[in-house]
Amino acid sequence: MQFDAEQLAEYVIAFGDELKTDSRRVAKHFGKRHDNVLQTIDRMRREMPAEDHRLSFQEMVIPTLVGSGASRDSRVVSMTKDGFMLLAMSFTGKKAMLTKIAFVRAFNQLAASARHIGASLWDQRRDLEEENYINLQFAKYGSELMLNRKLVWLPYYRPRKQHLDNTMQLSLFTLLDTQQQELSHAE
Known about the structure:
70% helix; elongated; 187 residues; 8 helices
């Protein structure tokens, strides 16, 4: 079973660099009441080591619309794939098994998509750095080339680099930024 983006969001969502689902989604797809799913998570908290529970489940309070535009705060628990697997093990029956399979496939498909996108961004970032290095080497041969670098290349390079860095959100680029600033000061 392959999901499109809208179907994936019904099961799994990305929080930063983590893939998660939440107690509302679980209740909806397993055909259970949300308060019963929360009770099961609370029981699990008592039965499992605190550190494992903390890593797998995170409490949230979100506004929920009720009636004529009014809202109230509702407790929702977000969970990692591991948390979902631990919770889903308590659900039995044929429908529960099919729902577990759908959730696992959604997690796996979204993770595979993220890896593919990350690899593509990494390739773009590497190519951009290679272009920058070559441009810098040429700029060292004369003042006209250095001026061209400052007026043409760097205004093109910096926003592209920033966009890729923001998209990839990897701490590795903190080191590369420091090195780039050192190069800019040397220019």
